[in-house]
Amino acid sequence: MPTILQTFRHLRRYEQVGRILTRYGFGQILTQLGIGRAITPGLERLRFRPSGILRATPAERLRMAVEELGPAFIKLGQILSTRSDLLPAEFIRELEKLQDTVPPTDFTLIQAEVEKELNKPIDQVFPVFDPVPVASASLGQVHLATLADGLEVAVKVFRPGIDKLIEIDLDILLELAALAEKRTEWGAYYGVLALAQEFADTLRAEQNYEQEGHNMDRYRQMFAGQTYVRIPRVYWETTTRRVLTMERIQGIKITDVDALDAAGLDREKIASRNIAILLQAVLQDGFFHADPHAGNFMVLPDEVIAMMDFGIMGHLDQVQRLGLVRFFVALFGGDTE
């Protein structure tokens, strides 16, 4: 948990977070935690003024606030978008938009990051490198490119300069979680400090693209005998901690029902295969994709499921897997005891 010295050192960022939350109508959270006045005098009197915010629903305002708060909060919002057990449906629908609408980083900064990581001019490594990203996530963005041998690839580049901001925001999230657990019933009920710590550990691990590449290799080996799973290959000669070069795969987003139907794909088969992938990973291998929002799953011809973004993975030991197997057997057998 952050120390008092860290809290004071991050005071300017605390003020920014407080003002953003208050402008979008969530300043009462800070008041509930007892830190509204401490962060900045007059914060509680601040009101959201722009007409666009005033017309927005609470769910829309939460999504807009998260977007403005930056990478760590966007990642948290993306994870929450998969938790329909925690949030109402309208909030889930809004947070799902974070999967696709994170504003991209300026290409000059991306180019500089690639050249620094690979220690070569970008055109020597990638004769073709599209400056417009095809995907823009909280930590990085993906560009289509071509290697010197003509192979078409997708290049994932970590957003330059966000490391320090992420660490500051993780400190703040841990501090707020500790206060919530101590001062609110909902914080104590959900054990939010442990959840925040797990999120912080996960987000720090996700910043290493070399580890993500190894996760992809392991997952591809796990499903080597299954024709309905596709995991992009990693090209290690042009992969570092901040740049990940992988096989280019294009398909239909798994939740785009209209496009799936237009392509003549069998939705029931897609759902069945998706469940089979999950059960094998969780119950058999104990190593599973732990960021399963819709932006990370695409469908290819013949109902093949392609999986992306292996920065967050889950691990289960043999005892945990056996416990889950027993749970499922009891569940389907109606054995409540």
Word description of this protein:
- It is a single chain.
- Helices cover 52% and strands 12% of the residues.
- It has 17 helices and 11 strands.
- It has helices at residues 4-9, 11-23, 28-33, 36-39, 51-55, 58-69, 71-80, 89-96, 107-118, 122-125, 163-183, 185-190, 192-206, 209-222, 257-262, 267-285, 318-332; strands at 128-129, 135-136, 140-146, 152-158, 229-230, 243-247, 252-253, 287-289, 297-300, 304-307, 313-315.
- Strands 1, 2, 3, 4 and 6 form a 5-stranded antiparallel beta sheet that branches.
- A hairpin with a 3-residue loop joins strand 9 (297-300) and strand 10 (304-307).
- The longest helix has 21 residues, at 163-183.
Number of helices: 17
Gyration radius (Cα, Å) is: 22 Å
Q: Care to count the β-strands?
A: 11
Strand content: 5-15%
Broad structural category: alpha+beta
| Strand and helix order | HHHHHHHHHHEEEEHHHHEEEHHEEEEH
Distance between the termini: 39 Å
Describe the main β-sheet briefly: 5 strands, antiparallel
Mean pLDDT: 89
Summarize the SSE layout with pairings.
Elements: H1 4-9, H2 11-23, H3 28-33, H4 36-39, H5 51-55, H6 58-69, H7 71-80, H8 89-96, H9 107-118, H10 122-125, E1 128-129, E2 135-136, E3 140-146, E4 152-158, H11 163-183, H12 185-190, H13 192-206, H14 209-222, E5 229-230, E6 243-247, E7 252-253, H15 257-262, H16 267-285, E8 287-289, E9 297-300, E10 304-307, E11 313-315, H17 318-332
Parallel strand pairs: 5-10
Antiparallel strand pairs: 1-3, 2-3, 3-4, 4-6, 7-9, 8-11, 9-10
Helix pairs in contact: 6-7, 6-8, 11-13
